[in-house]
Amino acid sequence: MIDPSQGMHGQFDLLIRDGFVAEIASGIDPAGKTVIDALGLLVVPGLIDLHTHLREPGGEHKETVLTGCRAAAAGGYTGITALPNTNPVMDDWRTINYVNMLAEQADLVRVWPVGAVSKGSAGREMAEIGAMVRAGAKAVTDDGRGVIDARLLKNAFLCCKQFGIPLMEHCEEESLARDGQLHEGLVAAKLGLPGIPVSAETVMLARDLLLAEESGGRLHIMHVSTAKAVEMIRQAKEAGLHVTAEVTPHHLLLTEEAVDGFNSLAKMKPPLRTAADVEALRLGLSDGTIDAVATDHAPHTEAEKAGDFQSAPFGIVGLETAFPLLYTHLVMRGLLSLDQLIDRMSCRPATILGVPHGSLKTGYAADLTLIDVTNERVIDRQAFLSKGKNTPFDGWPVFGVPMLTMVAGRVIMRNGTIVAN
Ligand SMILES: [Zn+2]
Q: Ligand 1 centre from 2 Cα, in Å?
């Protein structure tokens, strides 16, 4: 059992009563209790994803709240966010309520909606942030794009501060990123495609840090992709700013070279960068500059990704591959400890969202994941429970596959199959 929230790392029994953690000890008497034998498996606080695109309402052909929740449970996640770039955009309490209702009907993992910063995420007029927070929104973002209007962003920071939520920013300066298809570097030059420079991320990040500082608002930086941005976040944290950051598994494992040959399964925003950027992101995650791993789970249809490279949409799925990939390529290679990985994928995301999870302390909800670190398996995208099969990791051998996901004491997924409902 590994629970970084209480520095726990060892072999114990865990007693669950009425959906909550009642006791962790050695040799709890099993008489009269339902027993799950987890011998040989890891028991960790359920994984939490800060960055999930569930596509509903409006994109049900790509994913629904139900299929997204199934994919989450299969990937060991007990709680996910629902990002607002839906159709209509989640920019008022009605759409937040609607997604809450869909999540209740799905009745699998926890779903925390994230509202838009601006109406329609159009960047002109602030959305009704207070009403969305009252309806259950845990943060706001215009993800898919950044908030271009600096004054609007500053006012949004002030509003978020009042309601105690983070503003999650997709740092991309549009005039620099415009028409870009991949990282502005060697592969873009070779393929003759317009690139997205490092400055598209860092110019926006610099402005956001200044506005976060001036407003006293809490900035969460989504999907950091460059070494330069890691350094800027490190300095901002040293200066005492209220800033947190996330990185995706693909930015930790792949470089621009994955796009070579016009591979649209490696086309994403921000783009895959260079080996030096990957190195800096890994170091940033390890030293805590980057707080969390988030999937940026972005399901698209096969047809959309199969078309020509330039018209293919950005993004890949991630819920069902994140933990095994990072366990295999960071933990097993000694680049990150197992405790650090659990912290970055469960404890810290819970803290950023301000939800009482990411811990197996007595009294917390029994949200947990059992993981097999002994047996090697191969990622098979056709076996995903997500509607989206768009991943560049198909066929990769991995260890660390989640075997059981439990939410509030109820088993949701066992051996890759959804068993609840
Ligand atoms: Zn984004």
A: 31
Q: How many CB atoms lie within 10 A of CB 302?
A: 11
For residue 249, say if its preceding peptide bond is cis, omega within 30 degrees of 0.
no
pLDDT in tens, 140-161: 999 999 999 999 999 999 999 9
Catalytic residue chosen out of the listed positions 296, 343, 367, 372: 296
**What does the angle CA 296 – CA 300 – CA 301 come to, to the nearest 5 degrees?**
160
Cβ neighbours, 10 Å, residue 354: 13
296 is catalytic: yes
Q: How far does residue 158's CA lie from ligand 1's centre (Å)?
A: 22
Q: What is the DSSP string of 262-300?
A: T-GGG--SSPP--HHHHHHHHHHHHHTSS-EE---B---
* pLDDT tens string 82-115: 999 999 999 999 999 999 999 999 999 999 999 9
> How far, in Å, is the centroid of ligand 1 from the Cα of 276?
22
Helix 227-238 vs helix 198-215: angle between axes, to the nearest 10 degrees?
A: 10
Which residue type does 385 have? L
Ligand 1 centroid to Cα of residue 224, in Å, is 10
State both tokens at 128: 């009704």
d(CA 147, ligand 1 centre) in Å: 11
**CA of residue 15 to ligand 1 center, whole Å:** 39
Distance CA 130, CA 123 (A): 18
How far apart, in Å, are the Cα atoms of 72 and each of 252, 299, 313, 374, 412? 20, 13, 22, 22, 10
Q: For residue 88, is the peptide bond before it cis, meaning its omega torsion is within 30 degrees of 0?
A: yes
Q: Which amino acid is at 272?
A: L
Domains annotated on the chain, with CATH: 47-359+374-398 (3.20.20.140)
Q: Which residues have a beta carbon within 5 Å of ligand 1, which is an ion?
A: 143, 170
**How does DSSP classify residue 218?**
P
